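thought: fold this chain, then report.
action: predict
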Amino acid sequence: MILADENIDFNIITHLRSKGIEVYSIKENHPGISDKQVITLSKNEPRIILTEDKDFGEWVYAHDEKGISVILLRYQFGDTDLILSILVELIESRKDDLFGKFVTISPQKISIRSLK
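observation:
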């Protein structure tokens, strides 16, 4: 269900997996691939891209990339536990509703935008 971009810390991946959330890791399986290749991979078996890379917002909004779902994490290292808690709760409570969305998670708020 989740496609973890190469910039996602392995502790986050491990935590999600420990909660029973399926995570496919770019770092483990395809290190060094481009953002465009990550997008293509996310479409082959529909998965939500989990990233800390704002470039995915550019792909969606400036390049009008269709058919992807993104969760963008925006946090400081000291907020990792809080972000993990928010992320797990969001995925567990709204997993089917996150496809076709661009979600930004920060310690202060969650923003969910539908992609057309």
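thought: worth noting. DSSP finds five helices and six strands in the chain.
final: tokens above.
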